[in-house]
Design a protein that fits this description.
Mean pLDDT: 94
Radius of gyration: 19 Å
Shape: globular
Number of helices: 9
Helix content: 25-40%
Distance between the termini: 21 Å
Largest sheet: 7 strands, mixed
Number of strands: 16
Strand content: 25-35%
Structural class: alpha+beta
Order of helices and strands: EHHEEEEEHEHEEEHHHEEEHEHEE
């Protein structure tokens, strides 16, 4: 068991390996932000603006990683419009292999120690009854704000790739890949879709260096005027023959044209050609966020799992167990 250290690219690869092993046996127990693709995306995009705020601890058994915690501590983020966002609380991404469930108590105790005095949030998966019991024993409560009609809880959606529709774009639009468009266009497509955003050329370079990124699985839609109107990255897990969309975004000037639907279908065809038989994508699940959910349902995705957001105030002491 390693002591707390700042997260590294090597750590992320170990964490992705655990994600693959859990996916193979209990995919319903893969926590939010702990999937193979989410780890790659979150590490890559945040590497430039979360430096110094990422602490991790790893737990091993027989030389294999069986649990990890990644605490994101207070930091400042500069956005693409020049504004600054201060993140004042702590958030934990984590995963425990189901054969080592007892380690969740150690993960919680570690998180409480490195985030003492801060409001702490965490997103265990709702299917993990044992873990939810342990979080409650340590003083964590349901985050009622996150579960509101416009809250921030997420659900994971899935579908197989056996029967795919043919994607259809409006006249003058065409599919491109990041290999074809280059870095500047790929970055601008994301910033336009998610503005204001902290994403930058430096962040994209880190994303590109993070396995299993592939430029041919980074798909964009180019408008007739040359604007990159939509984009998505697919993360292929060759071991489990599954792929994950993360992120998915459309330029606000080009929404409601069917670009997102066409791009997702095109992406799934490419993922299948690359060896995937199964696809996942996450979205906000609250009733007040129907847009992305409706888009994914429209191309055949259905709900699979959801997270159970928990919170603990900075002044509350942990319960002895």
């Amino acid at each position: 068991m390693d002591d707390s250290e700042h997260l590294t690219a090597t750590d992320v690869r170990l964490m992705q390996g655990l994600a693959q092993r859990v996916t193979a046996v209990r995919p319903d127990l893969v926590n939010a932000d702990a999937s193979y693709g989410e780890l790659a995306w979150n590490w890559g995009r945040g590497h430039t603006y979360e430096v110094g705020s990422r602490l991790r601890r790893l737990w091993f058994s027989g030389g294999a990683l069986v649990a990890w915690g990644w605490a994101q501590l207070p930091h400042r983020v500069r956005l693409s419009d020049g504004s600054v966002k201060d993140v004042t609380g702590a958030y934990l991404a984590h995963q425990v292999h189901p054969d080592h469930g007892e380690l969740v108590d150690e993960v919680i105790a570690w998180y409480d120690s490195v985030a003492a005095g801060l409001e702490r949030t965490v997103l265990p998966v709702s299917a993990d009854d044992f873990a939810l019991t342990r979080w409650a024993a340590h003083g964590y409560e349901t985050d009622t704000a996150a579960l509101g009609d416009t809250g921030s809880w997420t659900q994971l959606n899935q579908r197989d790739l056996d029967d795919l529709e043919r994607p259809v774009l409006p006249d003058g639009f065409r599919f491109r890949t990041a290999d074809e468009t280059g870095a500047a266009a790929a970055v601008q497509a994301h910033v336009d879709a998610w503005a204001p955003s902290p994403y930058s050329a430096e962040a994209y370079e880190c994303v590109r260096r993070t396995p299993p990124y592939r430029g041919d699985l980074h798909v964009l839609v180019q408008a007739p005027d040359g604007t990159m109107a939509a984009s998505t990255i697919m993360w292929l897990d060759e071991m489990n023959r599954t792929a994950e969309f993360e992120p998915v975004g459309t330029h606000p000037d080009f929404r409601r044209l069917g670009l997102g639907r066409a791009m997702l279908l095109h992406g799934m065809h490419r993922a299948r050609a690359a060896g995937a038989t199964h696809m996942t994508v996450a979205c906000l699940g609250a009733p007040g966020h129907p847009g992305a959910r409706g888009l994914y349902y429209g191309v055949g995705f259905r709900p699979f799992t959801r997270d159970a957001p928990l919170v603990k105030s900075g002044g509350r002491a942990a319960v002895s167990v």
